[in-house]
From TrEMBL:
Organism in which the protein naturally occurs: Halalkalibacter nanhaiisediminis
Cross-referenced PROSITE patterns: ABM
GO molecular function annotations of the record: monooxygenase activity
Stored Pfam families: ABM
InterPro entries in the record: ABM_dom, Dimeric_a/b-barrel, Heme-degrading_MO
All residue ranges annotated as the ABM domain in the record: 2-90
Recorded superkingdom: Bacteria
The protein's name: Heme-degrading monooxygenase HmoA
Keywords associated with the record: Monooxygenase, Oxidoreductase
């Protein structure tokens, strides 16, 4: 399996707004080949720190998702979000091969 974490900080007062965006996400990734799971994580001590975790069966399937038209559409919409402070946030992305479960 292959997992990707995208961690970003939002102003604490906007954390619930961002959480609601993810609760109402398009879910197009859910039908991508090799998709296993999506999680939105909130740091327990720093509520403005949010992390998206995606799990795919393989790195290759994850990379196919990133290169897909659906991925591009979703990320273009993010850039057009009315709150430009949130739209300008660039996440720290880390990618991991699962080596034990």
């Amino acid at each position: 399996m292959y997992t990707v974490f995208s961690t970003f900080d939002v102003p604490q007062e906007k954390a619930e707004e961002v959480i609601n965006i993810y609760k109402n996400r398009s879910r197009s990734v859910d039908v991508a080949p090799g998709f296993v799971n999506f999680l939105l994580l909130q740091n327990d001590k720093r509520p403005g720190e949010l992390t998206v975790q995606l799990i795919f069966k393989t790195k290759e399937e994850y990379l196919s998702w990133v290169r897909s038209e659906d991925f591009k559409k979703i990320h273009e919409l993010e850039k057009k979000y009315p709150d430009q402070e949130l739209a300008a946030i660039i996440p720290k992305v880390s990618q991991h091969k699962v080596v034990a479960t």
